[in-house]
Amino acid sequence: MLKKITVKNYKGFKDAIAFDFSDFKDYQFNIFAIKNDLIKSAIIYGKNGAGKSNFGLAIFDLTLHLIDKQRSDVQATNYLNGDSDEEFATFIYEFIIDSDHYKYAYRKINADTLIYEELLINNHKVFSYNFQNNKGDFDGLKIINADTLKINESINMSVLRYIAYNANIGEQNPIAKLMKFVSSMVWFRTTTDGNQYIGLEKGSGSLISAIIETNKVKEFEEYLRKNGVNFNLQAKKNPVGMDMLVAKYKYKDFDFLETASHGTRALLLYFYWIQKLKNASFVFIDEFDAFFHTFLAKDLFLEITINIESQILITTHNTDLMSNNILRPDCYFILSEGKITSLPNCTERELREGHNLEKMFKSGAFNG
């Protein structure tokens, strides 16, 4: 699981900003939101432009150089902070995987160019490497049983990735476990321009085709009906031979995607991803409920956070989700002025299960 991430001089974050998943309180309700002494499910609030989306992209920056999975153009645009004179962004990740503590840190001058990289496992350095002067410390490779691996002094790719692909290591090796975690991370969101995602897979194939090919048309139809949307769906081929779903009416048939609302299209995305999330390690959902009615948003969030084992972090403006009936105070965070702070750390008041968090938030009780 992800324990902590710190990022500096990346996009809108000039100064260091951190999210610590180990900073939770001793609440005795909604304990499903905590797993292995780390926050499993959390929600970030913040005004427009506060940096919620950029923080999600920061978490997923390591996927750019460690794995070959889906990426987004927005990860590379305006990479360094415009108000900083530093020439690189700094990222520090801490993971807990099978009781081992990993600290992975690196610096980049753009989305694809590393200038420094290091990895520590249980406070022991595995390696460090400076790409600018081609000098590294690889004495710790013996920690991961890779001390026979020869690393070129002018290596031009991530050292961690090089080790993962070239060392003779098994699935239980710490490096293999870390890479598996990163390979299973997924970020996604739905906008008026369509569905976007990062990680987990490679390529952006048709969601409709995926549902048809896995014989889940009727399951998807029932999923829509459960969420208040009634369609009679049938799989067909369009005139050029591509998969399509047809919404059947009494006298006419329509292309499902042409007749579906933005909210219904978002349900298509969630139906598809809920199947995939069973194999995910970490999930970031940006603008979670942009097209959902508030009641549907509650049901969907609870469905995801209770039934999916992975860590889940979402962003939203929907304060109806800020409730002790859904999560708990230490799982709600406010991003403001370059800081991410949980509700208990935003007030001197002791927050209890009976408190109306949304009402307190709207009255200005939390000084993020």
Looking at this protein, list some descriptive labels.
Rossmann fold, alpha+beta, 368 residues, seven-stranded antiparallel β-sheet, globular, 2 domains, single chain, seven-stranded mixed β-sheet
Compact description:
With 368 residues, this protein is of the alpha+beta class. It has 10 helices and 19 strands. It has helices at residues 52-59, 63-66, 159-166, 174-183, 207-213, 217-226, 256-259, 262-277, 294-307, 357-362, and strands spanning 2-8, 17-20, 34-35, 38-39, 41-45, 89-97, 100-110, 113-121, 124-130, 135-137, 185-191, 194-199, 233-237, 243-248, 253-255, 282-285, 311-315, 332-336, 339-342.
Task: Indicate the proportion of strand residues.
Answer: 25-35%
Computed structural class: alpha+beta
According to CATH, the fold-level topology of the largest domain is Rossmann fold
Portion of residues within helices = 10-25%
Strand order of the largest sheet: 2-1-6-7-8-9-10
How widely separated are the two ends?
26 Å
CATH class of the largest domain: Alpha Beta
Main sheet: strands, sense, barrel: 7 strands, antiparallel
**How many DSSP E strands?**
19
**Measured on Cα atoms, how large is the radius of gyration?**
22 Å
* Mean model confidence by pLDDT: 91
Helix count, DSSP H or I runs of 4 or more residues: 10
Principal-axes geometry comes out as: globular
Flag low-confidence runs: none
